[in-house]
């Protein structure tokens, strides 16, 4: 039985690590992809986790499979493609550690996952099914994503969703909004950044925007809003909680939102109440742990390699 199974992209992030003697940027190969980042965070916290997705049957794809295996995440649902190569992304960091991405993703393996290749047995055996919107940007992975979400709903699974908006992967902003909102219709737990909330609702009042989504989608039980250096916000139908950010020295914000989501799901899995019944204190406890998890991740460069230990998370919270 898996605590969480996630479907989506796993790819290679080339992360800047300095400048060569010839004054050229040096990039380090790192495993990445929001769903796999989150799963590795959960596994690091002691949860059972499994990945569903597609990579190339190439050195990059084998390295990604090895990463899952090394981090205790089941790769049973990973398809190795002889036809399509592993997706690549180059990460660009600002002076403050904020990141942007350049993707090499035209007909690469992650977007070529078909509905028939989705391991439904893993969804049968999970407590939470998780997905994002990057796999919705092209076919056939878009159909695979919605087929898996529909299957999870039919099986009565708790469904979590992190859109992880990457506008440069979509044909247009209008198309992105249309499909991302279709994903919200399946979600019980929705995690958004402040940018994503404004994009989907047009509302700059974060609490009001989150409440509008709760009112619009009956299936939603919890809405999370990560606000970067300004902290985070969480709502269910009973209460709203918010908190400021933990003070850390930021090196790289890559995977911070993914680890935040992993931290929240970890605490929620261990809560005594269902998501919609979490009390104000229980919701705050989940949010505080998630916030500390995301904050600690920003103190190191990279994604999966930057994920904190339980001791580091608790140490930050206790400090």
Automatic annotation (TrEMBL):
<keyword id="KW-0808">Transferase</keyword>
<dbReference type="GO" id="GO:0016301">
    <property type="term" value="F:kinase activity"/>
</dbReference>
<keyword id="KW-0418">Kinase</keyword>
<dbReference type="InterPro" id="IPR029056">
    <property type="entry name" value="Ribokinase-like"/>
</dbReference>
<comment type="similarity">
    <text>Belongs to the carbohydrate kinase PfkB family.</text>
</comment>
<keyword id="KW-0547">Nucleotide-binding</keyword>
<feature type="domain" description="Carbohydrate kinase PfkB">
    <location>
        <begin position="3"/>
        <end position="309"/>
    </location>
</feature>
<dbReference type="InterPro" id="IPR011611">
    <property type="entry name" value="PfkB_dom"/>
</dbReference>
<dbReference type="InterPro" id="IPR002173">
    <property type="entry name" value="Carboh/pur_kinase_PfkB_CS"/>
</dbReference>
<keyword id="KW-0067">ATP-binding</keyword>
<dbReference type="GO" id="GO:0005524">
    <property type="term" value="F:ATP binding"/>
</dbReference>
<dbReference type="InterPro" id="IPR050306">
    <property type="entry name" value="PfkB_Carbo_kinase"/>
</dbReference>
<dbReference type="Pfam" id="PF00294">
    <property type="entry name" value="PfkB"/>
</dbReference>
<protein>
    <submittedName>
        <fullName>Kinase, PfkB family</fullName>
    </submittedName>
</protein>
